[in-house]
């Protein structure tokens, strides 16, 4: 990366070449504005973040302790505050991403209003949110750089060369808030051409990683709801190809594709593929179709289908709507076939949607996949749809019971109750939850852990608490004690909301443009000065 001094020198040369017409340009201000905006286009971001993600994937292959994480964000401000917080607490954003959840786009960003996760929202809202997230992350860069420039100016004015040098080094070593986004394209919003067109928009907005699922696009359901319908492998692979072509067309050669399978919880298919040769993917897919064995045509009625499975003919089990049912208890086998097939045809990472957070279950599936593709690794949904407390308490209960430990003091069906919170079982369950991501990365091949819609829930919870206190007996103390005082004492940058919204950046720009004529907002009467010591 170019240093601050190099940037100034280049700007000075450029301005000097223009003679007197650019005499109003200050080379240092030019350098500052360039450093505050390190990415000129979404494609610049996609290429930069794709490289980071590939490096992280390689690092995980070397040591499974090097897993990555993200949280789902439904607004640019939420994503920005998340990354500012990560830098504050951990000093670096490395291995921390953002997740763009189709569920939250549907529920919170559609012009139709709140919608279920069924691909009914406008497809354009997905790239729009990607662009918004990166706009806010870039603004976080600009704000932090503005603070560093102010520190540099104050050091110069004080004649403190040590402090000046330290500020300049901080500028040169600045780490951007821009991180990879794993972006949910649902089932592709239509046919493979529609998937390609939307993928292009998402990549142009900055997405380096696109997650696509093997459900039927026009019958898509949330991964944790019933009624899921999958497509044959050929249909899904065509959409993986479409996404890859979009990456390559736009020059994002390191673009990452996450192939998600919903087969574990999907019991239906919309169509039966045509087999071209013995043992091909279509035949393997059709082998899972449920049906009644047919030994005589007298068993057939008008409109019935006849399917040959190996040496047997069956009448497929169909619902009233024409959907075809899979054989029971074949979900795991279909998942394994889905994952191997996707990795062998262009996908980079897998997503297996499960019904519970159980490391043993995930590991069993991944180990079977790795028999064919040794470096297979997952993106895993640490979903709020799981009752984590109950699930893990029941896992501990079952483990204890299997080991012969006395569990008579516990009622397995009531383990969510507060009365168990201080028990040994609950404490062990919480410890398993705390270590879930680390243990699953090591034992079940999970490269990336995400929570799809956490900020949906945190927004609801914090708003509920504020409403309860502010409109109740606490009045204004409900806000001061539970919000502002905590912001101040915990060092949240957002307590200076004027600064966070870009007021000080704007003041600097006014000075660049207007010199001493600039009308600034940050004078002595700005009430934000009350937080000067924060």
UniProtKB/TrEMBL annotation:
GO terms, biological process: carboxylic acid metabolic process
A Pfam match: ICL
Alphabetized CDD domains for the sequence: ICL_PEPM
Cofactors named for this entry: Mg(2+)
GO molecular function, one term: isocitrate lyase activity
Record keywords: Lyase, Magnesium, Metal-binding
Active site as annotated: 222 (proton acceptor)
Keyword Metal-binding: yes
Cofactor remark from the record: Can also use Mn(2+) ion.
InterPro entries: ICL/PEPM (IPR039556), Isocitrate_lyase (IPR006254), Pyrv/PenolPyrv_kinase-like_dom (IPR015813), Pyrv_kinase-like_dom_sf (IPR040442)
Catalytic reaction equation(s): D-threo-isocitrate = glyoxylate + succinate
Residues engaged in binding Mg(2+): 184
Keyword Lyase: yes
Name of this chain's protein: Isocitrate lyase
Organism of origin: Marinomonas posidonica (strain CECT 7376 / NCIMB 14433 / IVIA-Po-181)
